[in-house]
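Reply to dn_fold:

You asked what the input looked like. This is it:
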Amino acid sequence: MSILSGVSDFFGLDIGTTAVRAVQLRGSGPNKALVKYGYVPIDVKLSMSESKADQQKLMQVIRELLDQTKIDTKDVAVGLPSNRVFTTLVDMDRLAPAELGKTITYQADSLIPTAVSESKLDWALLGDSPKEQGKVEVLLSSVPNEFIVGRLEALESIGLNVIAFEPDAIALARSMVAPETVLPTMVLDIGSKTTDIIILMNGTPRLTRAIPTGTDAIVRSAMQNLNIDEKQAQQFVFKFGLGKDKLEGQIYNAILGTVELLISDIDKSIKFFTARYPNTHLDRIIVTGGASTLAEFPLYVANKFSMNVEIGNAWRNIAFPPERQNELLSLSNHFGVAAGLAERQE
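and this is what came back:
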């Protein structure tokens, strides 16, 4: 999953559930400059399908996107959707890196949901274990080989050279949080089908979770409880959301049950984090995706957890001309993963 050295000109590609997005940056250091970006909407059925025919259609969409954006490099860093990646924290004996790698591979069968022989493993040493003296803390990720190989072959079939696969959560954290941030920070990204919860400390993810509830489920609640069609439900949900005083609180009451499921998962994640790191507390929550565009949701989260909640900015670590600020900020909540992939350092 790591990037090949010597490749400095590449673009980030986010193959999402409802759109494919690309970002190309140039330069080095913490603030690369924006060169090109763009997106093409896709049908959810296409993005979720495993059939060869649909994969070919998906590649055709990516080709269209590259033509549209005029991205001129074939080297690409590709996001891995959170529902395909398993991530966990493990405490291991303190060993030399080579020995640690062997031990992790040996023990991985009991740590990951898929067979080691059928998985791509990646791990990062985080430092001393907060739970067991004399041990070290390791962040372990695994992805099924079948998914990686299938995606790699499909992208190579349209002439792309994949230099890195990276979990969406890692890319999202990179774009949403300033590199110098040390205080524990949560990034909350509500997508159409799933919600990603990431907690970082000292710039490194300490918890990543993919919750199978997204904006589609919230819209569905409004449809069912108010007996309205999907288009109307979407308009109402994003316009009035959790505003108790809007439309006599009808939208609020219709979607509250589903929103509370998400709130419960956020609460569990915070409790897990503080139990593992008892001498720390979460500093703030950065919201993006549907979490930033659902009316009154950021305020609702802030009140629930008595915490600072910020709207994320996918371009915060990227240099661009001032006259493009309004255009870019209006799209920010869609580009967190693609921007984060493009920000990878060699």
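The chain has three domains: 11-83+145-177+313-342, 85-144, 211-309.
Hope that clears it up.
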